[in-house]
Design goal:
The complex is a heterodimer. By secondary structure, chain A is mostly helical. Chain A folds into two domains: 1-54, no CATH class; 63-280, Orthogonal Bundle (MetI-like fold), CATH 1.10.3720. Chain A is built from 13 helices and no strands. Chain A has helices spanning 6-35, 38-41, 56-61, 69-104, 109-117, 124-136, 143-167, 171-179, 184-213, 216-221, 230-238, 245-265, 267-280. The longest helix of chain A is centred in the N-terminal third of the chain and has 36 residues, at 69-104. Chain B is mostly helical. Chain B has helices spanning 3-36, 53-60, 62-93, 100-106, 108-112, 115-125, 132-139, 153-180, 185-193, 198-227, 230-235, 247-257, 261-293. The chains are: A mainly alpha, B mainly alpha. The interface between A and B is large, with 97 and 98 residues.
Chain lengths: 281, 294
């Protein structure tokens, strides 16, 4: 490698600081808004850091007192957790056998390509029939109905990740076990699945984040606390009625915390998951 | 074991996935096609057959052309900016400097931020009375009066584009960085020995490794940008004066606000067709490039 000249090193550090500032400024501001007293947020000139930090909004939103703003928020938090978890479990259960089958039997691969191609479909192309069908089955405004609909997004994606994961496990290991007298199911249970566990975990994380992030179907198919998810609740807050912008920011911070923690802790796995398809082309 | 049994077994293992996919994607899509030839309403009447009436009316109306232009403009600007910023950030992170690991960890944050929270955050930043952008620009003396960034047709789309790029360029950066780190060190060393300058090193050593992953990112981001709904719905709902109305927003209005399920379905299929054509065109380019590289 060429040795870096002092000027180049200076330039590098300036560029790095700039990039860090671009990424952090909006995020830090979201947090500052959540702990600033309402008067500070409405002040002109705007106060960029509160004189006294005010964490009361977190207590407001995380309270379970009936008919409070907190109760509505906690209900949507619970709904988001339930919908995203149920859809994740279902998607991974479908993806593991299908991903293994395609990985070991390339002749059926075209069906997976077809499933993945549905990624091109805008959700609006499915929304009207799904709406009518959910209405028919009494599944509108239900966490179960919404979780089922989320499979349109989660299942193709997890199957694709699982297939790439199984591709990375040499089939010779499975063949050796079969030669030693293990049945196919024993082989899969004892050899393949334990080796694939990290990929299963990564796929599940991605699926959960996708479910947590989803907005369009939740907006259409839920209407009250029984099923309304966090994204819809936040969009409602942002859309009006609330005069305290700090409260909206607090809801945003709380909704962003789980995926961000997952993102930071699981960085390595997420990046390899994000890039595996890309690098292989 | 015979080949037929292995194939049958593979189909059996795929069956649960395929059944669910037919139920939640295949059948609804077929029904959308059916609806698109009717004048069905969202609730009540199932509608009667009207042939291509919906398509003719939509394609000849002026909302369609304008919305298609807005969507294309949004997609082209957003994807181009994200690609450029992403590659620049990746080239920076591929250098040695203090805090590199920390900076790379920061890149995951905008990506992990839920889209709706991102939209809400920027909506607060652009707020006409109390927003941070107005405050910052006036305190710096760049702006004399507070402006309604999302309330004026002239600035709303640009404001949306900035918010979308901020969230999505880190993903491109992460993909590009992974590709850069796959460039073998001895090839880079050899290019130094051969006396290649910075530009030819980028063009002939780095770019071949970047091109594949970047094309994939380009395809995915273009498809997503054409489908865009969430960020626009939360920030402007397509306004003001329809200046930020994209195809998905138009379909939503037609099918759910005006409850015209039939014509909403036609519009949704037109959008699907446009995205498919784009994806196939990209796919052909990717294949050609892969062919010429081999």
């Amino acid at each position: 490698m060429e040795r870096q000249s002092p000027l180049f090193r200076f330039f590098l550090h300036i560029a790095a600081l700039l990039l860090a500032a671009i990424i952090l400024a909006p995020l830090v501001w979201l947090f500052v808004m959540s702990i600033s007293p309402a008067a500070d947020l409405a002040a002109k000139p705007l106060r960029w850091w509160p004189e006294t930090m005010d964490f009361s909004r977190y207590a407001t939103l995380l309270s379970t007192v009936e008919n409070s703003a907190g109760a509505a928020f906690m209900a949507s938090l619970r709904n988001s957790l339930m919908v995203a978890s149920m859809a994740t479990v279902a998607a991974v259960s479908l993806a593991v056998p299908a991903g293994w089958a395609v990985s070991r039997t390339p002749s059926v691969g075209w069906s997976l390509s077809l499933v993945i191609a549905t990624y091109m479909l805008p959700p609006v192309a499915l929304a009207v029939p799904l709406y009518m069908a959910l209405a028919n089955f009494g599944l509108l405004n239900s966490v179960f109905g919404l979780a089922l609909v989320y499979l349109t997004i989660l299942a193709p994606f997890t199957t694709w990740l699982m297939k790439s994961g199984f591709d990375g496990i040499p089939r010779e290991i499975e063949q050796a076990a079969v030669i030693d007298g293990a049945s196919l199911w024993q082989t899969l249970r004892i050899i393949t699945l334990p080796l694939a566990l990290p990929v299963v975990a990564t796929s599940a994380l991605f699926a959960f984040l996708l479910g947590w992030d989803e907005f369009f179907y939740a907006l259409l198919f839920t209407s009250d606390q029984r099923a309304k998810t966090l994204t819809v609740a936040i969009a409602d807050l942002a859309g009006g009625r609330v005069s305290d912008y700090g409260l909206i920011a607090t809801a945003g911070v709380l909704a962003a915390l789980p995926p961000m923690l997952v993102g930071i802790v699981m960085q390595r796995a997420l990046i390899s998951g994000l890039t595996s398809g890309g690098v292989k082309g | 074991m015979s080949g037929t049994w292995i194939t049958t077994r593979a189909w059996l293992l795929m069956l649960p996935l395929l059944i669910v996919m037919v139920a939640v994607i295949g059948w609804p899509l077929a029904d959308t096609v059916h609806l698109s030839f009717t004048d069905a309403k969202l609730v009540g009447t199932s509608g009667s057959y009207v042939g291509f009436d919906n398509y003719v009316r939509l394609l000849s109306g002026n909302a369609f052309g304008r919305t298609l232009f807005t969507t294309t403009f949004f997609a082209v600007v957003v994807v181009t900016t994200e690609m450029l910023l992403g590659v620049l950030a990746a080239l920076l992170l591929n250098q040695q400097f203090h805090g590199r690991t920390l900076l790379r960890a920061l890149l995951i944050l905008p990506w992990a931020l839920p889209t709706v929270v991102n939209a809400t955050l920027w909506r607060l930043i652009y707020n006409p009375e109390y927003g941070a952008l107005n405050a910052a620009l006036t305190q710096l003396g760049i702006l004399s009066d507070y402006r309604s960034w999302l309330g004026e047709p002239g600035t709303a789309l640009t404001a949306l584009i900035v918010a979308d790029c901020w969230k999505n360029f880190p993903l491109v950066a992460l993909i590009a960085l992974a590709a850069l780190q796959a460039v073998p060190r001895d090839v880079v060393a050899a290019s130094y020995v051969d006396g290649a300058n910075a530009f030819s090193r980028f063009r002939f050593v780095t770019l071949p490794y970047l091109a594949g992953p970047l094309l994939v990112a380009l395809v995915l981001r273009t498809i997503e940008a054409f489908k865009v709904f969430d960020i626009i719905w939360v920030m402007t709902r397509g306004g003001p004066a329809n200046s930020t109305r994209t195809m998905s927003i138009l379909v939503y209005q037609e099918a759910f606000s005006f409850q015209r399920a039939g014509s909403g379905a036609s519009l949704a299929l037109i959008v699907t067709l446009i995205i498919t054509v784009l994806a196939v065109a990209y796919g052909t380019i990717v294949k050609k490039l892969a062919g010429s590289a081999a």
